């Protein structure tokens, strides 16, 4: 930036997130810091002076997607300062450093402080790596409110994990379990609600282990329920052994803001595989829990994660996973293909399933997941459900029911219902959503 016209304009920054909801919420926190520091935020892909790529390392495929994204950014913006932050920076700093044009690599501990290392934005001759040990203490986020409005906003409440499942790199990438300071979290909630946010999606690595200011996950959910103006609380995902039963009482109570939504990772339907994964339950316990929860909470959505191709997984083990999903009230399964993560126990095994077979099984399970979703959607036809309407598209008001059915309502003036709750009669299953008609606007 040398000409006077360029000197007058604000520096432009663009951000990109790979991976989970937690990363998405952290990118928004980073965005706020950039706005506060005087940057103009431009969409990723446009010309920028600074690019920050918030990475993921959950699978080998995630690593490769990160490398591709970083290269593409540098190719389009050879003069820009390129900072790579997050999980892949934490675990694969050397690989990131080998990409020509990268200026800065920051792991998870200092991710939100990345601006401190960018200085005047002049490119570095060699990439600087900042990869500090991850703190064990609870944390704050200092929400500033400088982020795009979203009626369903992610709320980071927790980070890290102490469980150390044998396939998982996350406890190394994100450190030990720790919780967000309650007062800091509540400041964000109040500010979001005053901006009109109606639903908060609690995000973290192992949310059920939340523990701060004398509140566990149940106490936290109750504290959020007491916030005036907050209509909906959704827990993005929760580990099976960490769910207090009383959460289901809250979900079943229509006056409580906690939604009937349970994403309960399974990983495998084979007891042998679960044990080798070092999961803390067996298949029967998982299924019993889901059955009981579905009986206790009307219309409960149950989603799950399943890993395919763990070392030693036989066709029979895989069939156990398929059967468990089909035999239980599961509405959706997110399928992960196992990939070796260096440093994990499972990576050291010598009975890896051939990659082709892993992909074959993943494709079969994904097809099954689609059938589950279809079954779930069809079970709602003819019913009236409460929907929170999101940003409209031409002639269409999209939204989600409390129990996570994606709904679209064709209407002449969809803007009129944006960010409002309505009652919708569900009529037709179409691809991955259900079409319906508006019965009434609720508020
Ligand atoms: S519970 Fe297991 S799979 Fe989940 S983040 Fe912790 S170690 Fe990884």
UniProtKB/TrEMBL annotation:
Its cofactor is [4Fe-4S] cluster. Gene3D superfamilies: Methylthiotransferase, N-terminal domain, tm_1862 like domain. Residues 378-440 form the TRAM domain. SUPFAM superfamilies: Radical SAM enzymes. The keyword Endoplasmic reticulum does not apply. The keyword Transferase applies. It is an enzyme of class 2 (transferase). Keywords: 4Fe-4S, Cytoplasm, Iron, Iron-sulfur, Metal-binding, S-adenosyl-L-methionine, Transferase, tRNA processing. Residues 11-123 form the MTTase N-terminal domain. GO terms for molecular function: 4 iron, 4 sulfur cluster binding; metal ion binding; tRNA (N(6)-L-threonylcarbamoyladenosine(37)-C(2))-methylthiotransferase activity. It catalyses: N(6)-L-threonylcarbamoyladenosine(37) in tRNA + (sulfur carrier)-SH + AH2 + 2 S-adenosyl-L-methionine = 2-methylsulfanyl-N(6)-L-threonylcarbamoyladenosine(37) in tRNA + (sulfur carrier)-H + 5'-deoxyadenosine + L-methionine + A + S-adenosyl-L-homocysteine + 2 H(+). Transmembrane segments: none annotated. InterPro entries: Elp3/MiaA/NifB-like_rSAM, Methylthiotransferase, Methylthiotransferase_CS, Methylthiotransferase_N, Methylthiotransferase_N_sf, MiaB-like_bact, rSAM, rSAM_horseshoe. Residues 147-375 form the Radical SAM core domain. Its EC number is 2.8.4.5. PANTHER family: RADICAL SAM PROTEINS, THREONYLCARBAMOYLADENOSINE TRNA METHYLTHIOTRANSFERASE. NCBIfam families: MiaB-like-C, MiaB/RimO family radical SAM methylthiotransferase. Catalyzes the methylthiolation of N6-threonylcarbamoyladenosine (t(6)A), leading to the formation of 2-methylthio-N6-threonylcarbamoyladenosine (ms(2)t(6)A) at position 37 in tRNAs that read codons beginning with adenine. This is tRNA (N(6)-L-threonylcarbamoyladenosine(37)-C(2))-methylthiotransferase. It comes from Ruficoccus amylovorans. The lineage of its organism: Bacteria, Pseudomonadati, Verrucomicrobiota, Opitutia, Puniceicoccales.
């Amino acid at each position: 930036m040398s000409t006077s016209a360029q000197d007058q304009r604000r520096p432009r920054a663009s951000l990109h997130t790979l991976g989970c909801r937690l990363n998405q919420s952290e990118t928004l926190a980073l965005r706020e810091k950039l706005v506060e520091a005087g940057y103009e935020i431009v969409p990723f892909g446009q010309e920028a002076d600074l690019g920050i790529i918030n990475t993921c390392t959950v699978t080998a495929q995630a690593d490769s997607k990160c490398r591709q994204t970083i290269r593409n950014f540098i190719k389009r913006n050879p003069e820009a300062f390129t900072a790579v932050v997050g999980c892949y920076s934490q675990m694969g700093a050397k690989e990131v450093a080998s990409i020509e044009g990268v200026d800065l690599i920051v792991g998870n501990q200092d991710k939100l402080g990345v601006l401190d290392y960018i200085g005047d934005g002049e490119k570095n001759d060699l990439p600087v790596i900042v990869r500090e040990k991850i703190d064990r203490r609870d944390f704050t986020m200092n929400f500033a409110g400088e982020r795009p409005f979203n009626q369903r906003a992610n709320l980071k409440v927790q980070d890290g994990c102490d469980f150390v499942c044998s396939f998982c790199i996350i406890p190394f990438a994100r450190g030990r379990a720790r919780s967000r300071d309650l007062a800091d979290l509540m400041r964000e909630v109040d500010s979001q609600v005053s901006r009109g946010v109606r639903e908060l999606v609690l995000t973290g690595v192992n949310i059920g282990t939340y523990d701060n200011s004398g509140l566990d996950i149940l106490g936290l959910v109750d504290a959020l329920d007491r916030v005036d103006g907050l209509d909906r609380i959704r827990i993005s995902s929760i580990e099976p052994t960490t769910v207090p039963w009383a959460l289901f009482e809250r979900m079943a109570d229509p006056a409580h803001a906690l939604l009937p939504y349970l994403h309960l990772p399974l990983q495998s339907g084979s007891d042998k595989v679960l044990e080798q994964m070092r999961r803390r339950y067996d298949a029967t316990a998982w299924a019993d829990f889901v059955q009981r929860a579905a009986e206790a909470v009307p219309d409960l959505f149950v989603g799950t994660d399943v890993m395919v191709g763990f070392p030693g997984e036989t066709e029979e083990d895989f069939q156990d996973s398929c059967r468990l999903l089909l035999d239980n009230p599961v509405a959706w399964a997110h399928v992960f293909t196992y990939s070796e993560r260096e440093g994990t126990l499972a990576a050291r095994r010598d009975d890896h399933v051939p990659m082709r077979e892993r992909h074959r099984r993943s494709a079969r399970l994904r097809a099954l997941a689609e059938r589950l979703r279809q079954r779930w959607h069809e079970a709602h036809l003819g019913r009236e459900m409460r929907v929170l309407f999101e940003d409209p598209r031409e002639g269409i008001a999209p939204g989600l029911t409390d129990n996570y059915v994606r709904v679209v309502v064709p209407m002449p003036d969809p803007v009129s219902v944006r960010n409002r709750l309505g009652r919708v009669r569900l009529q037709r299953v179409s691809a991955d959503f259900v079409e319906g008609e508006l019965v009434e606007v609720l508020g």
